[in-house]
Amino acid sequence: MLSVTLFLSIAKTAMTIITILVSLFIIKFVLTPLKRMFELKRSDASFYFFPGIGFNRYMRNDLKTKGDFLHSIKHYKENHPNKKFEVTNLGSSVTIMLRDPDLIKEFVNKPALYEKHHVFRVIKMLTGTGLPMAEGDTWKIHRKIVSSCFHYEFLTSNTNNIMNIINEFLDKITPQDYQNYPITLKMQEITGDVIGRMFFGERLSNYTFKGKSMTLALAQLGTELGLCAVSLGVLLFGTKILKAPFIPRYRKVMQDVTDFRKLCLQIVQDRKSTNPQKSQDLLGTLLQTQESGISEQCLSDEDIVNEFISFYLAGVDTTGHLVSMALYNLTQYPEYLQILQEERDQTFNTETIKTAETLQKMDSLHAFIKETLRFYSPAPGVTFRVATADHKLLDLEIKKGDVVRADLFSAYYNQKYFDHPHEFNPKRFCDNKQKVDSYVFIPFSAGPRNCIGQHLAVLEAKLLISEFLERFDFKLQDGYKLKMINRFTYEPVDHLLFNLTPRSV
Q1: 30-39 — which CB contacts under 8 Å span 24+ positions?
Q2: Which of 79, 184, 298, 344 could pair with 289 in a Cys bridge, judged by C-beta atoms 3.0 to 4.6 Å apart?
């Protein structure tokens, strides 16, 4: 009799706990966001709600049914011609997806009123307060210092060095590599080494991380953190769960983050023990700033590590993706291949030493890259940010705690700004045939926090594409069907595999 009574008591307690947990879930993930969504109800806004994951639900469905995670955003203006933004949810927060260039302009020019969403704080565990993740005065100081080092003249003076790195990698392609060549991975390997050597110099190859090159290890670590950032555990419980010792996946990633940062710090300190003044890479330049002794004019060793990792993660995936998608487009639209080859022969091949001026003459290639960015930009939106104070974006009332994001593809695929937007047509960017507002097409973002590495990205892309076209004919693996997903970047679900044929030069 006692055991039955005890069982009933335990069952009652368990039911009470379950009821409380369910009630808390409903309050936090249903009632709280719905209340704020109703406050934002207006005629020029669309609405979508799903408990917990919000808009991710229809994006996942788009991937499953349309083969494109961002299908709904690309077709947003067709289905909602008079809507300027979407109100939805992400976890317990209301999320405002801006899809009007005027609102986006206001948003990107008011960075001081926002901070990164907690999902991106996962990446911050690796990057620290590097430029993409820094806020407030820290961002201002770092931006000023890095901008003074990362100037256009520095990039142009390194054009030939970048070309040498590209040739070094392309020279390693053997006949065994000609079939099923993983173009995105290989392009990211090249762009990663470019950034690594521009920052740390040639001696970077002397260091490895757990048996892998520094660049490959960092790329894989960034991918793992990106997947953790969108995992259910982080979405529901925040970044603190990453430090929970009872979850093996999170524990391993966090240990790798700690070990990798220690190695980067060791590289910086090794350089300081030699002659940093004689180094012409970014590390040497940044170390020289420490001689001023004024905190506002120099970066600490840890700050330098933060900037390297930030530059690497921001540049490797994005630039490698841009190049591989441009080459993919050439397999789909071969009529442009001849145009780019002729331009290359008339400009790129006429000079033994390639310079920035050489690349600036390649207008057709530049237009092709811009159209690739419009079609398959690796960064299709400005990152999720959380309002730190009540304010307005034009006539849109933003409250403290609201999550705001600028969705760029809704403008890129809007017929108001681009004729026949779902057609791939680089000629739209030639000879200013189609002028668009400066906040309609912003593949490198805009405002004070625009991408500081955009000139390097375009320079790398032009050199890589030009040299690849010089060496190889290529075609996409038979039967390949492109499906696009938004992971750390907007990228193919399955690896792009090319079959290569060496060209007679």
Answers
A1: 32/92, 33/89, 33/92, 33/93, 33/94, 36/94, 36/399, 36/402, 37/87, 37/88, 37/89, 37/94
A2: 298
Domains of the chain: 100-502 (1.10.630.10)
Confidence band of 198 (pLDDT split at 50, 70, 90): confident
Contact 96/202 with Cβ under 8 angstroms?
no
The answer to whether 166 and 323 are in contact (CB under 8 A) is no
CA triplet 263, 135, 281: central angle to 5 degrees? 40
Q: Which amino acid is at 408?
A: L
What DSSP designation does 460 have?
H
What's the maximum distance between 2 C-alpha atoms anywhere in the chain? 97
Q: Where are the alpha helices (DSSP H) in 238-300?
A: 248-272, 282-289
**pTM above threshold 0.85:** yes
Angle subtended at Cα 500 by Cα 495 and Cα 503, rounded to the nearest 5 degrees: 150
- Per DSSP bridges, beta strands 472-476 and 484-486 are unpaired
The stretch 270-299 carries a mean pLDDT of 76
